[in-house]
């Protein structure tokens, strides 16, 4: 009939493509995990900042002076990042789980 010959595909070629898809999924999972941790850290920073709003240190003998108000946000960020690095409060895990669902990925790694 026609002049077309059949195409033969080696199984190793197909396995290579599957490995690339898996690598892409792993990279996406890593990005999602980082984003979830960053979100938790940002949330905690706001919460710690609000907590410090109620603390009056201007009248204490060891107050930070004028610079204290300027650097409170840096301290809030540092505390939030450390809490997040130390396991957080569970927000990152929940956000990560939902983001994986939205991307069509399962929670377990392949």
Can you describe this structure?
The structure is a single chain. The radius of gyration is 25 Å and the shape is elongated. With 110 residues, the chain is mainly α. The chain starts with 10 loop residues before the first helix and ends in an 8-residue tail after the last helix. Helix 1 (11-53) runs antiparallel to helix 2 and helix 1 (11-53) runs antiparallel to helix 3 (91-102). The longest helix is centred in the N-terminal third of the chain and has 43 residues, at 11-53. The protein has a domain at 26-54 and 62-102. The protein has helices at 11-53, 66-85, 91-102.
Compact overview of the structure:
By secondary structure, this protein is mostly helical.
Termini separation comes to 45 Å
Secondary structure: number of strands? 0
Succession of helices and strands: HHH
Classify the secondary structure makeup into a structural class: mainly alpha
Percent helix range: 55-70%
Mean model confidence by pLDDT: 78
What best-fitting shape do the alpha-carbon axes yield? Answer: elongated
Number of helices: 3
Please summarize the sheet with the most strands. none
Strand percentage: under 5%
Low-confidence residue ranges: 12-18
Q: C-alpha Rg, in Å? A: 25 Å
Secondary structure: elements and pairs:
Layout: H1 11-53, H2 66-85, H3 91-102
Features:
110 residues, 3 helices, mainly alpha
């Amino acid at each position: 009939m026609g002049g077309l010959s059949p195409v033969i595909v080696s199984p190793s070629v197909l396995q290579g493509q599957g490995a690339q898809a898996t690598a892409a999924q792993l990279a996406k999972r890593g990005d999602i995990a980082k984003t979830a941790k960053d979100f938790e850290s940002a949330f905690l920073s706001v919460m710690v900042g609000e907590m410090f709003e109620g603390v009056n240190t201007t009248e204490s003998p060891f107050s930070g002076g004028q610079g204290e108000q300027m650097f409170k946000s840096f301290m809030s960020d540092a505390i939030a990042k450390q809490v997040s690095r130390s396991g957080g409060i569970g927000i990152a895990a929940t956000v990560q789980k939902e983001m994986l669902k939205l991307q069509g990925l399962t929670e377990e790694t392949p």
